Amino acid sequence: MATDLLPRHAGDIVVKRLGAFRVVVVTGARQVGKSTLARLVVEQLGGTYLTLDDPLTLSEAVRDADGLVASAGGLTVIDEVQRAPDVLRAVKLSVDRDPTPGRFLLTGSANLLGMRTVTESLAGRAAYLELLPLSWSEMAGKTRPRAMDDAFSADSAEQFAASLAPVGSNAAEEARQRALSGGMPEAFRLDVDNRRAWYDGYRRTFLERDLRQLSEISRVPEFGRVLSLALLRSGGLLNKSDVAADAQVSHSTVDRYLNLLQVAYQIRLLQPFFHNVAKRLVKSPKLYAVDSGAAAWAANAFDWRAAVASAKDGALLETFALSDVMAWDGLSGASRYHFWRTGAGAEVDLVIERGEQVVALEVKSTATLTRNDVSGLRALRADLGDRFRLGIVAHLGQDVRVIDRTIVAVPLASFLGVG
Question: Which domain holds residue 125?
């Protein structure tokens, strides 16, 4: 199967949302697969595909957004809509006149709600969906994983463990390769040299073209340093003062640049989980690259030995695993994501909330576990009481091990749906 035809878990969700909403907006990083997804939806449902990457279509959209939108009939895709923000205003007027569901599918390589040039949010008219890099299950042609749903519904760790498929002997090596190569559709299957060249070109295009659509940046090399420093810090607590010092820029400049990187879906900030206000908890967010391949590229870690030598192996695997989980679990909109860390050092990589219930996930880059590997989960369980549903340690071994009634260790591949 060709890389650009890999089915996306988001496809069914987009079709479902189009059946209920007048507008569906799919956003995500440049080259993450939004255009391909939109074309596949048009092939399935019928309709018209327009892209503002085409100079003539862009010129028409800038000159006469109302005319472009008025000419639409049936389902109309407008790709890269951030290039002509006035189109959103025209779409709002159109769907207010005709509120039939499924009229527009818009895509954008920026968080439209975070762009200063975008004044129309389509509030009450649109469903928003973020498309993340390919998940491991999508690369393998598997169905959308159910592990998170099973974790919340299981009555015990033993019952959850029984729902997982076994993994093969090469699962650990495959997981390491997935963390190194990332999930960008055009890059993940490339060999090392070509993947390095792809990320070199991606960065250059982002800095020289895409960035100008988001903001006026007069010092592009300065911005590039902050980008590299942010990617190198993937999986760590964000310390803006350290980034400012290393990049030799002001604190306010770091604030602005990090915000732009979030708007462009290059990084995400995972906020801390607060439950017990009396407990001393870390308040800084954790910074993650949206694509682990970009973090590996920034660290010049193109094989696992290089990742281990630079002490980036744990952070890269964690970056990959969290992005993978959010790529399929986040489609439902039911989950909220945080991390948890106390001032005393107890930590959990990912805290997933659904209503009052919590599932906690720890990602380990080893095949064997120690008592300390579950200490964070136990501390969080003690803090949450009955809210704590299940604690999961996802590791690179092959065995499932039930620690106690609500804590279980499982192979990472099984949890991510490729067992």
Answer: 3-130
User: Which residues have a Cβ under 8 Å from the Cβ of 210 and sit 6 or more positions away?
Assistant: 30, 109, 264
DSSP string, 360-386: EEEE-SSSS--GGGGHHHHHHHHHHGG
DSSP code of 342?
A: B
Q: Are residues 275 and 147 in the same domain?
A: yes
Question: Same structural domain for residues 38 and 53?
Answer: yes
Contact, 203 vs 220, CB < 8 A? Answer: no
Is the same domain home to 180 and 237?
Answer: yes
Q: Are 236 and 271 part of one and the same domain? A: yes
Name residue 49's beta-bridge partners.
77
- Beta-strand pair 76-79/48-51: parallel
- DSSP reduced 3-state for 353: strand
**Does 65 share its domain with 142?**
no
Write out residues in the chain with pLDDT < 70, as ranges. 1-4, 113-120, 276-280
Residue 3 has a pLDDT of 44
pTM score over 0.85: yes
Looking at the structure, tell me whether residues 90 and 143 fall in a common domain: no
